[in-house]
Design a protein that fits this description.
Blueprint: E1 6-11, H1 14-25, E2 28-29, H2 39-45, E3 56-60, E4 68-73, E5 86-88, H3 98-114, E6 118-125, E7 128-134, E8 140-143
Parallel strand pairs: 1-4, 5-8
Antiparallel strand pairs: 2-3, 3-4, 6-7, 7-8
């Protein structure tokens, strides 16, 4: 049996990044524990001070297939290039025509920029087209 994984982002603002990545990946924010109408209700019941309510957030695949992604607040900012990044496969199947894949990637760039992402650079090599992007806190990811 394969080992399950969770992807973790260190960040300054967990709620903002969770909101961005939920929209980018078509995920949803994780529901609060059973018996609580909201995360605020749960945190208040646990005695967590209000200033710590945005110390973490998580998103989940609504279909249950993809990994949980967890965002945790850390005091230091991002200072170097990511050693690991996500590739969002938005272009469609590899056997789709190149122009169609490129059109899909470009459409997703526009959508993600409206959500707060920034474009870095487009790369075309070996018949592939992908675009390097930054999320709202500067974490790199690619659209292909």
């Amino acid at each position: 049996m394969a080992t399950g994984v969770q992807i973790v982002f260190d960040c300054a603002d967990p709620d903002t990044l969770a909101t961005f990545w939920a929209a980018a990946l078509h995920y949803k924010k994780q529901d609060p524990p059973s018996g609580f109408a909201s995360w605020q209700d749960f945190l208040k019941a646990q005695g967590i001070p209000e200033q710590d309510w945005n110390s973490a957030s998580a998103i989940v695949d609504p279909d249950g297939a993809g990994p949980r992604i967890y965002f945790q607040r850390v005091p230091e900012g991002k200072v170097v290039k990511n050693r690991v990044h996500l590739d969002l496969n938005v272009g469609g199947p590899r056997d789709a025509p190149h122009d169609e894949r490129r059109r899909r990637v470009d459409a997703e760039i526009d959508r993600l920029e409206r959500l707060g992402a920034r474009r870095s650079r487009a790369i075309e090599e070996r018949g592939e087209y992908f675009v390097n992007m930054f999320d709202p806190e500067g974490n790199e990811f690619d659209l292909q």
